[in-house]
């Protein structure tokens, strides 16, 4: 008499991956990471660039609004490297941050205080803006080292100039449209557009 074949229960097997399955999973994961990391870095750069562009446009809008409200000139300028309460005279707007100041005393574009004068006849710092370099963003305007709004809301530009442009770009800039150009016209209006990376 033949015996019935013995059934082997699957309960005794150890659950898990074979070496081949594990190698395939690691390969797929590696490919996914290699695609995701550059995309994440690009997204971070774009976010920082947008944030800094908005910060600059906001500072210019505040300066214009304060000039009209106070009836006095208001200046936006990069902070001097050796004096956090004064304006720099160079075109690098990123390294030290910006000042927005009520620019009552001459010369304009500098922080001037006379200790013997009445307080409302001295320049006054209205706001400080953190350095763009902290966000790894360059901000350059080779045309002006400060921008002064007049009480009528118009901006004081060098003679014969109708516009001035700030160029913002990440330290690692990638085209197309890797930078932003913020344009200020003589009437005081501010606009921006995407642009190719500066060369």
UniProtKB/TrEMBL annotation:
Residues of the General secretion pathway GspH domain: 52-188
Principal localisation: membrane
Coiled-coil regions listed: none
Keyword Glycoprotein among UniProt keywords: no
Ranges annotated as spanning the membrane: 20-40
UniProt record similarity statement: Belongs to the GSP H family.
Protein name: Type II secretion system protein H
Organism of provenance: Steroidobacter flavus
Lineage: Bacteria, Pseudomonadati, Pseudomonadota, Gammaproteobacteria, Steroidobacterales
């Amino acid at each position: 008499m033949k015996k019935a074949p013995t059934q082997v229960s699957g309960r005794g097997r150890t659950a898990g991956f074979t070496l081949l399955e594990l190698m395939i999973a690691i390969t797929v994961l590696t490919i996914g990471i290699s695609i995701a990391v550059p995309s994440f870095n690009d997204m971070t750069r774009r976010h920082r660039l947008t944030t800094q562009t908005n910060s600059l446009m906001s500072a210019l809008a505040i300066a214009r609004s304060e000039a009209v409200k106070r009836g006095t000139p208001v200046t936006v300028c990069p902070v001097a490297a050796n004096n956090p309460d004064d304006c720099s005279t160079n075109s690098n707007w990123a390294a030290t941050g910006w000042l927005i100041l009520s620019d009552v005393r001459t010369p304009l574009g500098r922080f001037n205080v006379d200790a013997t004068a009445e307080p409302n006849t001295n320049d006054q710092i209205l706001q400080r803006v953190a350095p763009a370099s902290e966000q790894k963003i360059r901000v350059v305007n080779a045309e002006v080292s400060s921008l002064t709004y007049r009480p009528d809301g118009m901006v004081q530009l060098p003679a014969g100039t109708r516009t001035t442009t700030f160029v913002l770009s990440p330290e690692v800039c990638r085209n197309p449209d890797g930078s932003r150009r913020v344009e200020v016209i003589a009437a005081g209006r501010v606009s921006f557009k995407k642009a190719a990376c500066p060369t």
